[in-house]
Amino acid sequence: MLVRVAAGIILRDGAVFIALRKSSQHQGGLWEFPGGKCELSEEPEVALLRELEEECAIQVTENHYFKTVSHDYGDKVVELLFYKVTGFTGEPIGKEGQEVRWVSVVDLPDYAFPEANVPIVDALISAL
Ligand SMILES: Nc1nc2c([nH]c(=O)n2[C@H]2C[C@H](O)[C@@H](COP(=O)(O)OP(=O)(O)OP(=O)(O)O)O2)c(=O)[nH]1
Ligand SMILES: [Mg+2]
Question: How remote is the CA of residue 36 from the centroid of ligand 1, in Å?
Answer without folding.
Answer: 5
